[in-house]
UniProtKB/TrEMBL annotation, chain A:
Domain ABC transporter: 13-255
SMART domains reported in the protein's UniProt record: AAA
Source organism of this protein record: Draconibacterium aestuarii
Coiled coil: none
Record-given protein name: Phosphate ABC transporter ATP-binding protein PstB
Taxonomy of the source species: Bacteria, Pseudomonadati, Bacteroidota, Bacteroidia, Marinilabiliales
Keyword entries, A-Z: ATP-binding, Nucleotide-binding, Phosphate transport, Transport
UniProtKB/TrEMBL annotation, chain B:
Localization: Cell membrane
Family note: Belongs to the binding-protein-dependent transport system permease family. CysTW subfamily.
Tree of life domain: Bacteria
GO CC terms, sorted: plasma membrane
InterPro entries: MetI-like, MetI-like_sf, Phosphate_PstA, Phosphate_transprt_permease
Residue ranges constituting the ABC transmembrane type-1 domain according to the UniProt record: 85-286
A Gene Ontology molecular function term of the record: phosphate transmembrane transporter activity
Gene: pstA
Organism: Draconibacterium aestuarii
Name of this chain's protein: Phosphate transport system permease protein PstA
This protein's record includes keyword Transport: yes
GO biological process: phosphate ion transmembrane transport
């Protein structure tokens, strides 16, 4: 049985018996239940193919776009089942940042930040737009670097800057939860540490759920950690506890580098 | 020991010889490939440049007696190919208006439903269409438009036959350019809660815009010089005609007419030169657009 003995009061998100399968009868995420702490960084770890991305993508209902993917179980965001929300409302509350920086290549830096509003046809006053752009870019510490080139294409930025731009794009919607799927795996160490600092700062206002392959990164910045293996949530707890006293043998083997 | 060293030297020698041989071969083949187009352009310029003037673009062709008079007194043939230019423009624009929306939408459908039966069928049919001889498309447009709709030869019929020619190229280039967009761009938009149709209209199409444009321009340049289908549909006209239900001239049709009239035959070179220039310009523009997005 899973050892998910942590109790988290007033969780921002409750995952209940989540199962996701790409092929009928084969579960990429197998009966996962967990509560996610508000205003904290929660790391999801595990060997390649264990279902981390699959679980993350279930949280903003990305799987609905593909006919063959089946999702079961409940995801409760602030006490409300996410399947009862319109997707636009859900995705405003749950932002997503991908492994590879993916700014919209045809849009300027400015338009990339407010892309969520633009593409959804949400009208804003010029002053509101300017505010959102400045606030979001400042939040990701990109404002000083790009404030004079806001109307240049976002694809001209460096990889690390692009990834911060993508985080800013997610923040512009003022979400409650930010999902990040290995956000630094395509970046160099300097850009990585900038993003790490950023995430620690952002948790004051947002709840962060992050997939990472990098154990030292999880140890550095996360408050809670999950360890997944073959679709199951093997262990979940305070990062400090998990790294010092793992309860499950598989977690211990993973953390000590025996596999993964 | 020494024999194996010798062998290596030998091998090396043979390899450099082989290298040289291939290099020469590549250069020769490149020249063989390039020379026809260079020769064609050279020929057209030498034989056609004297006729090119503002009149040539702004006036309609002379009748055969005027041409004969000019020829016998050693002057340039008066008049120009304005009726052909306007006709070509009219029909190509109309063909584009028909083919672009249908082609782009079909291309999007193929991209969105790669494995579906109907999509595979459409893709194959479109490939077959690409191989249908253009004269057959002219016949089809004759049956569909000339007889039942315009009761006679017409620009509309010409446009329809040209649009069918353009269609497969636009379908294919749309599908291929959309395929080149990384899936992550699409997911970025979806993750912002953008509805699917808006993702297509406002993210995928703008992102692949230059690719789409390249395909469209190549399609246009492909039909610009088509003669056979127009003979059965637009027929030709000695005057400038902008009524799509009436017979209309086109530059390639004029070239064919000039060719058949001993008094006018000199005009084929200048007309061809102009047509060639338009096709080349379109090709260069589309290459430039394609290069800029890489
Ligand atoms: N689109 C898909 N279609 C079919 N199977 C898939 C698809 N995506 C993932 N899978 C399978 O689901 C399982 C979980 O994949 P997932 O991408 O969630 O793993 P992950 O933990 O994120 O791995 P990684 O660390 O390599 O990113 C794997 O066995 C994978 O092969
Ligand atoms: Mg993954």
């Amino acid at each position: 049985m899973n050892d998910n003995s942590v109790t988290i009061k007033d969780p921002v998100l409750s995952i209940r018996n989540l199962c996701v399968s790409y092929d009928k009868g084969k579960y990429a995420v197998d009966n996962v239940s967990a509560d996610i702490k508000r205003n904290a960084v929660t790391a999801i770890m595990g060997p390649s193919g264990c279902g981390k991305s699959t679980m993350l993508r279930a949280i903003n209902r990305m799987h609905e776009l593909y006919e063959n993917i089946e999702t079961k179980g409940n995801l409760i965001l602030n006490g409300k089942d996410i399947t009862d929300m319109p997707t636009i409302q859900l995705r405003r509350k749950v932002g997503m940042v991908f492994q590879r920086p993916n700014p919209f290549p045809t849009m300027s830096i400015y338009d990339n930040v407010i892309a969520g509003y633009k593409l959804n046809g949400i009208r804003l006053k010029k002053s509101e737009r300017d505010d959102i752009v400045e606030r979001s870019l400042s939040d990701v510490t990109l404002w000083e670097e790009v404030k004079d080139t806001l109307h240049k294409k976002g694809s001209f930025l460096s990889g690390g800057q692009q990834q911060r731009l993508c985080i800013a794009r997610a923040l512009a919607f003022d979400p409650e939860v930010i999902l990040l799927d290995e956000p630094t795996s395509a970046l160099d160490p300097v850009a990585t540490s900038k993003i790490e600092d950023l995430l620690v700062k952002l948790k004051e206002n947002y709840s962060i759920l992050m997939v990472t392959h990098n154990m030292s990164q999880a140890a550095r910045i996360s408050d809670y950690s999950m360890f997944m293996y073959l679709g199951e949530l093997v262990e979940y707890g305070k990062t400090k506890d998990m790294f010092t006293r793992p309860k499950d043998r598989r977690t211990e083997e993973y953390l000590t580098g025996k596999f993964g | 020991m020494s024999s194996s060293a010798n062998l290596m030297v030998d091998n090396l020698g043979r390899r450099t010889l082989k290298d040289k041989f291939y290099k020469v071969l590549v250069v020769v083949l490149s020249i063989v490939t390039i020379s026809p187009i260079v020769l064609i352009i050279y020929e057209l310029i030498v034989k056609g440049y004297r006729q090119i003037s503002f009149d040539f673009i702004l006036k309609t062709p002379p009748d055969t007696f005027e041409a004969m008079t000019a020829l016998s007194s050693g002057e340039l043939i008066p008049g120009g190919i304005a009726n052909g230019l306007t006709g070509t423009l009219l029909m190509v624009v109309l063909a584009s208006v028909i083919a672009i929306p249908v082609g782009v939408i079909t291309g999007i459908y193929l991209y969105e439903n790669p494995g579906k039966f109907l999509a595979n069928l459409t893709r194959n049919v479109s490939d077959v269409l690409q191989g249908v001889p253009s004269i057959v498309l002219g016949l089809i447009a004759y049956m569909w438009i000339v007889k039942p709709i315009t009761n006679g030869f017409s620009a509309l019929a010409g446009s329809v036959s040209l649009s069918i020619m353009m269609l497969p190229m636009i379908v294919r280039s749309t599908e291929e350019t959309l395929k080149m967009i990384p899936q992550t761009i699409k997911e970025a938009a979806l993750a912002l809660g953008v509805p699917y149709y808006k993702v297509i209209l406002r993210v995928l199409i703008p992102t692949s815009f230059s690719g789409l444009l390249t395909g469209i321009l190549l399609g246009i340049s492909r039909v610009l010089g088509e003669t056979a289908p127009l003979m059965l549909t637009a027929l030709g006209s000695t005057m400038i005609n902008l009524d799509i239900t009436k017979p209309t001239s086109a530059v390639p049709l004029l070239i064919w007419e000039f060719y058949n009239d001993p008094n006018m035959v000199d005009l084929i070179w200048s007309s061809s030169l102009l047509l060639m220039a338009m096709v080349l310009a379109l090709n260069l523009i589309s290459k430039r657009i394609a290069a800029r997005t890489k």
